[in-house]
Amino acid sequence: MRLPVEPVTFTPLYMQRVWGGRELERIYGRSLPDPEQPFGEAWEIVDREEEQSVVDQGPLAGTPLHELWTSRREEIFGSGYQGHPRFPILIKVLDARDDLSIQVHPPVDRAAELGGEPKTEMWFIADCNPGAKLYVGLKNGVTRADFEKAIADGSVADRVHAIQPQPGDSIFIASGRLHAIGAGFLIHEIQQNSDTTYRVFDWNRMGLDGKPRELHVAQSLASIDFEDFEPAMDTPQGDTLASCAYFKTDRKFLSAGEHLANPDAGRFSILSVVEGALESEAGRRFSKGQFLLLPRDTKPLRAATDTTVLQVTLP
Q: Going by C-beta distance under 8 Å and a sequence separation of 6 or more, which residues neighbour residue 252?
C-alpha cells in the first residue's frame, strides 16, 4: 500500500573536526552530541556503507536511506534513476571555525587509478564572518613546478587564489579544482556521493589526536587542474546556482503564502531551508537549517513567512 505523500526528514550525522565549532547549535538551534567538542560537519543526506541517513519521524521512521533507495525507489524518488546502486548525492552543512586543509578531489578520468572516487561539489554560503576567505584555484601564472616547490618549502598558501564571498554567494567545485574553506564559514555543500579527499597542505597543525593529519601529495599533484587560475564566485543563471551531470541546485525566494513543489511532479527533490519556514499540507513545519526530501507527487509546501530555499534535483 502506498504511504501518504509527505516530506521525509532524516537524523543528521555530526562529525567532530579539528577545524569545527558550534555554529550549528547557535544558528540552527541544534542539539549537538557533545557539549564541548568542535563539530565541523553535519551529514544531512547520505547513503554510504559506513554512514547512513535514517528517517527520523512519520510512517517511515527508522528506515535507512539506502533501503528507501533500493526497495522503494520508484514510489518515493520517481523513475529514471537506474545505474545508481546508492543514492548518488551527499549533502552536508560545514561549520568552519578554522581553515580547512588545502585539498583536491580526483577527477573522473584519474580517480580509479588513484584508488579514490571522483567528487564534484558546490558550496552555498549560508553565513560567514566579514573578511572570511575561500581558497579556490591557483594564482595567475603558478605552474606545477612552482606548486611542487611550495609544497617543499611550506608556502602552498601563497600560491592559492583567495576570494572573500558574502552570505548567499555560491561556487562550483569540480573534481580537480584545488580548494579550501577558510575560517568563519557556515556552508551548505551539495556533492557527489564520495568521501575521497586528497590533502596537499594542512597549515602545519595537529589533528584532534595531537598528531599531524595525513597528507596525500602524490595523489593531489595527479589530480589538480593546473590551468584553473583565479576563479570568481559563480553568477546565478536565473534561479540556478549550479548545474552539472550529477546534480542541479536552484535557489527559490518565496513570499509568505507562496507554494513550492517538485519541478517535475513525478520526481523527488531535496530542500534546504536557508531562511524562513515551510509548512506541509499536514501541518508539519520546516524551519531555517532543516533539510527534507520531497517525494514524488508530494503536495506543494507553503511558505509560512518570506522564505529562501535551496532545491536540489538529479538530472
A: 239, 260, 308, 309, 310, 311
- Is 62 a domain residue? yes
Q: Which of 30, 97, 159, 199 is catalytic?
A: 199
1, part of any domain: no
Same domain, yes or no: 209 and 157: yes
pLDDT digits (tens, 9 = 90+) for 26-41: 999 999 999 989 999 9
> With contact defined as beta carbons under 8 Å apart, do 63 and 72 qualify?
no
Residue 199 corresponds to which cell in the numbers above?
Answer: 590533502
pLDDT tens, 83-98?
899 999 999 999 999 9
Q: How far apart are CA 24 and CA 7, in angstroms?
A: 22
Residues 196, 105, 150, CA angle at the centre, nearest 5°?
120
Q: Is the pTM of this model over 0.85?
A: yes
Residue 149 has a CB neighbour count (10 Å cut-off) of: 13
- Say if residues 193 and 89 touch (Cβ distance below 8 Å): yes
Q: Which domain holds residue 275?
A: 240-313
SS3 111: helix
Q: Is residue 4 part of a domain?
A: no
Is 199 assigned a catalytic role? yes
Q: Choose among 198, 224, 185: nearest CA to 101.
A: 198
CB 16 within 8 A of CB 208: yes
Assess whether 110 and 63 both reside in one domain: yes
Say if 231 falls within a structural domain: no
